Amino acid sequence: MLNSWYVSTVNLSLIQTPNSQYKLSFASTRIQPLKCQNAYEDGGVESSAVTCNFPSPVKSITSTSNPFVKHCLKLRNSSSYRHSHGSALVVGSRSIREIYRFQELMLEGPIVVDCLFLLDEAEIPEGLDCLNVRLVRVSSMVMKKLSGVQSTESIEAIALMKIPSSFQSVDDDQEADCRKWFPSPHRILVLDGIQDPGNLGTLLRSAIAFRWGGAFLLPGCCDPFNEKALRASRGASFQLPIVSGSWRHLEALIKEFQMKMLAGHPKSNEELKPVYQICQGLVDSLADMPLCLVLGSEGSGLSEKTKRVCELVSIPMAGEFESLNVSVAGGIFLYRLQPENHLST
Fold first, then answer.
1. What is the chain's mean pLDDT, rounded?
2. This protein's superkingdom (predicted)?
């Protein structure tokens, strides 16, 4: 089901008051409707050319009631607001630095950073001093509010960044553009209803670490630009090609690249189809074959359709535990099935 959202241009300007003090004026103008898919926990929206211009004379913010702070808080807390404005907050200098280094390495041009928030009197973190962006000094209360954490001692910087073009949210009636989505489709991670942002972010980070070509999010997954997902992914959401779509789009992807479908599943005697243990022989046999690895949520597991269309694989365990946390199990699968990890030792 599609909802209508309105794109707005956020304008901030300085107004001189009678006592010669300056204050911020905040205005939002409705321009045109956008259609969006209920892809995330509170609705997803395709990114748009919405701008949020910070007034050039303003270099510091001390109040949590500041309109620009309120705008940034909406970006942090609301998926629909985030995607309608095409921007997200990235908390922590390490994540910002990793995104910057990746995009520099990929030669994707200048990173689109609206502004960089720093604590009053704090030095610019190492590796970020070369960024040609607007610096906004904020009080500890503002930093705490923006970061969503109680202690700001470990938070050196927060960046307001544009959601990258490598992320695509596709409607049900939209045609699949598989080659544009995934330039390197040899290994694609598919997440089936992963609602926990910590697990989703960790899986995206592992996919980057083991050189997978992208991630496909089926309905029911949380937003990869959710604050907790971003914190767990350490910026991987900005680096990995990600598509949020339906089974119809995934089936088009599988057909386009003739991909094999595997799904991680705990070993059980109750399954109606065999569950194969991942081993070196299986890894070697899949070395030159494009494949999708599907992982389901811990609460609900794999969907019935996933279990029906995929070959099920499990991780051999010597202990008595029935299964592993999905991000732990996913990390093992991603490592074992990563490109070039098929030579027997």
1. 80
2. Eukaryota
User: At residue 127, does pLDDT exceed 90?
Assistant: no
pLDDT tens by residue, 307-318: 999 999 999 887
Residue 182 shares a structural domain with residue 298: yes
In this prediction, what percent of the chain has a pLDDT beyond 70?
78
pLDDT band at 180 (very low <50, low <70, confident <90, very high): very high
Neighbour tally for 121: CB within 10 Å:
6
Q: Which residue among 142, 162, 182 closes a domain? A: 162
Question: What local confidence, expressed as pLDDT, does residue 36 receive?
Answer: 34
Residue-level pLDDT at 285: 92
Q: Are residues 327 and 234 in the same domain?
A: yes
Within this chain, do residues 192 and 320 fall inside the same structural domain, yes or no? Answer: yes
Looking at residue 35, its pLDDT comes to 34
**pLDDT confidence of residue 16:** 46
Domain count of the fold of the chain: 2
Residue 276, domain CATH? 3.40.1280.10
According to the model, what pLDDT value does residue 120 have?
87
Check whether residue 171 and residue 141 sit in a common domain: no
